[in-house]
Amino acid sequence: MQFLPNRVARNLAGKRLTIGSWVTSQEGETFRSPDILLTYDNSRQDTLEGVSYVANGDWQFVAHEVQIPDDVNGIGVRLYVEDKIVAWDGLTLVEGSFAGSGEPPVFDDVTATSGQWSGSRFTNILKNGSAEKSWKGVPEEIVSLMKKYGSGTWANRLNGQLFTLYDLDRTGVGYTAGIRAMFVTFWGSFAGGDWPGLARWHYAVAIGFLILSVMGWMRYAWLRSVIQPVMSSIITFPLFLVAGLYLVVGLLRMEVSAEWIPPLYYATARFLLPAIIPVVLLGLAGLELLTSKKISRIVIAVLVACVFMSNTWMLLRVELPYFNCDLEPRWTCTDL
Fold it and tell me: Rg of the Cα trace of the chain?
């Protein structure tokens, strides 16, 4: 199974594609050429099944053409077999009509990334169509160490996360959505938790707080010799280290895969919540470093007022109406 990056799939909407492959199986066995999987914005999925063939016991090239709908947002290729041994090589997906030529493509090299087909140059849309490149997993020494002092599940999860990075073109969308989910649920814990939810302006407060804090720390880094530090480096470094480590844990606990639709299955900040205290302390310290103490204290006072307003808004406009609502879904009774 291989899904194309979303941007590539969107560019192929409404076009005609040719999918082909070299295949070998036991003589007389039936198989079909690669399937095309389609996904849409409304979560609907379709499968354009390949053409059935009978194996001749030797390598044979099979190909067919498909018309991609205009409203598709995801395209994948699947090799489908049932209770038989089938070997595939040189999987090729190209834009245009080539199956009718009856000729196999001629690749430039063993990687099957480009070549000529029926007299025309082409670039294979699929990655690693000939499987010449292998993905390297986590070194065995690290796996053994994790199994000894942790668990095999963590070792397998580390390999899974590594494999998602190999196909970042596809999984990048999932990581972006996951980071957004982590941000939303982390700051949601300051005003009623991440359920039943927050309004967008609440997150504007959090973003403003972070921007001002980062500006303060950047000012301190630039004018370190003339600015009195708010807290000792003995405290600052461990706080940054703890916050960074929890962020890494949150990223590792994301459920992302290039074979899922969409790539992100699960992401939350519940693994980051122990970092709330370090983040708040570092954030307030950054505000203190922003400019004069008078202005910094005014900014902190405004921040406290905004947090109080957001909590009050959540209580009166969301949480009480939500739990007193007799309709389904209960969200209809809230201002979200």
Answer: 27
pLDDT in tens, 75-89: 999 988 887 888 999
Q: 76, 37 in Cβ contact below 8 A?
A: yes
Task: Evaluate whether 167 touches 161 at the Cβ level (below 8 Å).
Answer: no
How far is Cα of residue 72 from the mean position of the Cα atoms in its chain?
Answer: 19
pTM of the model: 0.73
- Rounded Cα distance between 219 and 236, Å, is 16
Residue type, 182: M
**Three-state SS at 63:** strand
Residues 113 and 180 placed together within one structural domain of the fold: no
- DSSP class per residue in 238-299: HHHHHHHHHHHHHHHT-EE-TTSSSSEEE--STTTGGGHHHHHHHHHHHHHTTS-HHHHHHH
Q: Tell me whether strands 255-256 and 264-266 are parallel, antiparallel or unpaired.
A: antiparallel
50, 66, 240 from 30: Cα distances, Å? 12, 21, 60
Question: Do 175 and 45 lie in a common domain?
Answer: no
Say which residue, 145 or 128, is predicted with more confidence.
128
- Give the pLDDT of residue 103: 86
Say whether both 88 and 6 belong to one domain: yes
Mean pLDDT of 161-174: 84
pLDDT in tens, 179-222: 988 888 888 776 555 454 567 777 888 888 889 889 888 888 88
134 occurs within a structural domain: no
Whole-number Cα distances in Å, 73 to 37, 66, 79, 133, 138? 11, 16, 21, 28, 33
The domain that holds 95 is classified in CATH as 2.60.120.260
DSSP state for residue 66 in the 8-state scheme: E
Burial 289-298 (b: 16+ CB within 10 A, else e): bbeeeeebee
- At 307, the amino acid letter reads V
Beta strand segments in the chain, E = 2-3, 16-25, 30-32, 35-40, 45-48, 52-54, 60-67, 72-78, 86-95, 106-107, 114-117, 120-123, 255-256, 264-266
